[in-house]
């Protein structure tokens, strides 16, 4: 990673090692992705990142990061 900033790195990365995420890897309709399960709506999750090697998956608006998918 390369970062250019006038702010000292101690301030930029402060608390980063203490951050935990509740992300899971799953496959939805044949597309592998990283999803954050929703606490408000069980069985759904918010897409964080696609792990699929197919370019057409990245062009599908339904699989954009931030979109909600069914996990069941």
UniProtKB/TrEMBL annotation:
It comes from the Bacteria. It comes from Tumebacillus amylolyticus. This is YlzJ-like family protein. InterPro entries: YlzJ (IPR025619).
């Amino acid at each position: 990673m390369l970062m250019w900033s006038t702010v000292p790195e101690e301030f930029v990365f402060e608390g980063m090692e203490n951050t935990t995420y509740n992300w899971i890897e799953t496959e939805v309709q044949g597309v592998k992705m990283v999803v954050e399960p929703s606490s408000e709506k069980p069985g759904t999750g918010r897409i964080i990142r696609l792990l699929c090697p197919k370019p057409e998956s990245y062009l599908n608006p339904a699989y954009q990061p931030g979109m909600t998918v069914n996990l069941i």
